[in-house]
Design goal:
418 residues; alpha+beta; Transferase(Phosphotransferase), domain 1; 18 helices; 12% strand; binds adenosine-5'-diphosphate; binds magnesium ion
Amino acid sequence: MPTREDISFVAAAVLDGAIRPSLGRDLLSWKEFAETNGNQLSVMELAIGCGFIDNDKAKAIAKIPAAEVKKDSKSKRLSPKAESSKGTKEKPQSRPVSKQIPGYKITGRLAAGSMGTVYVAKNEKTGEKVAVKVLSRSLRSKQANLQRFYRETNIMRTINHPNLVRAYDVGETQGGQPYLVMEFVEGQSLDKFLRKGPMNQQEAIRIGRSIAQGLHHLHTRDFVHRDIKPENILLSDKGEVKVADFGLAKNVDDSYITHTETMIGTPLYMPPEQARSETAVDVRADLYSLGCVLFHMVTGRPPFPGEHPLTVMTKHLYDKAPWAQDVNGNVCPHLSRAIYHMMRKDRDKRYQTARDVLMDLERVEAGEAPLKPNEHLKERLSHLQADLGKQQQLNESKSRLRDWFSRLVPAYHLPERL
Ligand SMILES: Nc1ncnc2c1ncn2[C@@H]1O[C@H](COP(=O)(O)OP(=O)(O)O)[C@@H](O)[C@H]1O
Ligand SMILES: [Mg+2]
């Protein structure tokens, strides 16, 4: 049941003009619906989680006392606090960002996203084109947003793989806004390609393999991306595929991620465990999302389309995943099976690693059927044995080196850890 706070929040948000009255009514009924499915969320969390309202704006609205809301609604003006964080887009700034990032000259704007604005810039020393993501002013004031931004930059700085966007530099503008300098991927994001309809199957498999390769690198370093979707897959004009936007990525062991954070973003590619707001989301969540993206690439639509985020989430939770070949008869059965296996609701029955997905996509590309789960297990075991063998060889050569060195310089002992 909606609480008094929920109702006042909706009333304030409607009077403020932040949401339409019909959306306010929907939010109240979704809350009830979410409760019956075991999700205890306030309407405010729901509105933020579904992307209807940004964090700061919601907080500002929640703080407006009822009397002030009335006064403001008559005069059609917001309180100064609410005004400062109006909308998710960047407000015109007193000083252009281009003058504020030392060493880089901003030459254009690429996109205004959930965390801020992404610009294209030129490294003034090398002339290299780069992309710069600047955290928006309204978000910077909140500790959680800063933490999220710096988590993204830290993860990006520890990874180095051709299928993951690389970070070069991080800092703060003269106006105090954190920024991240990244490699610039000249091309388009996958969602733009998908507007034209289904993709050629071989091309979809190639893109899927590249994403799986990037994920394998990320997952073996204990990170989960948690936001694999077409907007975050960049395709360069040279044919490269790069996973971007590590704003929701986390270390598999981190448990401090909030419930609302797990719900940020579009639910069209969201695994059931994330829709349930489970915080212990692991690498298999990315494999589910990859399955949904592949489904979209070959059929021209996501597996569970829908307008309302909660309806889509409910389908991810309870509806049987569709078979890609049933939606587009040109999709081969082997690929349909692999995609279906990625989208299994029970993550124990899903593909377990990005390497398994990669192996099957390679098989499908060569016209072969995907492996059975027990065959994947055998493959994983043989990889493990090979890795152990390599480790053993390495240990042996290290101990030979140590013996040789101590014979050469008897007084000196090499440390145990070379
Ligand atoms: N390194 C990059 N090179 C080219 N375009 C980029 C790059 N990073 C982001 N973009 C563009 O900016 C958009 C938003 O960036 P993203 O990192 O996904 O931010 P958000 O967290 O706001 O979604 C992307 O969909 C893409 O179009
Ligand atoms: Mg994004």
